[in-house]
Amino acid sequence: MLTPLDIQKKEFRRSFRGYNEEEVDKFLDQLVQNYEALYLENQSLKEKLENGEAAMARYLEMEKVIKNAVIMAQKNADDLERNARQEAELLLEDARLRAEKIIGDAEGKAARTLQEARERARYRIEEAENRVRDVMEEYRLLNKQVQMFRVKFRSFLEAQISLLDDQEEEVLEMMSNFGSGWLEAAAGRNGDDAGGREDTDSAAGAARGNLRAGEGDPGEQGDDGDR
């Protein structure tokens, strides 16, 4: 491309009947000025275009970077959301399993406690029933022993009464056989003639006492009767 200096330094050869030199130079000077203005404007426009293209390239690059950043951010956001959802689901599942385990343990413990309570209650009931049976058995044995004792004691009393009646009859019979002489002899041994009938009764009472003393302890008689 020609520059204004190339046009300004251009020299034409002279020829016969050529153009007017002064008009040509004046035109060339005007042409150089216009061309120089157009050349500078063209250079300025080229620089602006290059700057614009560079800016466009930078903007495109920045747009690409921003788009990539947005895409990456969106991808990261999607990954974070997916990871957060998965983590939440895992936590929820873990909480559900823990809750089920806690509920299961509690139900098992409650069942064991209830079973133990039932076992203890059944043991206490059986123990009380055994105790009642033992008490009732002891009561029956004691009642039987009381009944046996009453029968034996009644038999003993009846035997003693019968024995006393027999002995009293024997004494009266002996006294009637000895007659009044025996009574007087008994009174004389006491040395008191004035005792009369009282001494006679005393002698008879003494004789009864001796006879009773010869019969021994009633308890022993009862034991003998039991035997």
TrEMBL record:
<dbReference type="InterPro" id="IPR019933">
    <property type="entry name" value="DivIVA_domain"/>
</dbReference>
<dbReference type="GO" id="GO:0051301">
    <property type="term" value="P:cell division"/>
</dbReference>
<keyword id="KW-0963">Cytoplasm</keyword>
<protein>
    <submittedName>
        <fullName>Cell division initiation protein</fullName>
    </submittedName>
</protein>
<feature type="region of interest" description="Disordered">
    <location>
        <begin position="186"/>
        <end position="227"/>
    </location>
</feature>
<keyword id="KW-0175">Coiled coil</keyword>
<keyword id="KW-0132">Cell division</keyword>
<feature type="coiled-coil region">
    <location>
        <begin position="28"/>
        <end position="145"/>
    </location>
</feature>
<dbReference type="InterPro" id="IPR007793">
    <property type="entry name" value="DivIVA_fam"/>
</dbReference>
<feature type="compositionally biased region" description="Acidic residues">
    <location>
        <begin position="217"/>
        <end position="227"/>
    </location>
</feature>
<feature type="compositionally biased region" description="Basic and acidic residues">
    <location>
        <begin position="190"/>
        <end position="200"/>
    </location>
</feature>
<dbReference type="Pfam" id="PF05103">
    <property type="entry name" value="DivIVA"/>
</dbReference>
<feature type="compositionally biased region" description="Low complexity">
    <location>
        <begin position="203"/>
        <end position="213"/>
    </location>
</feature>
<keyword id="KW-0131">Cell cycle</keyword>
<dbReference type="GO" id="GO:0005737">
    <property type="term" value="C:cytoplasm"/>
</dbReference>
<comment type="similarity">
    <text>Belongs to the DivIVA family.</text>
</comment>
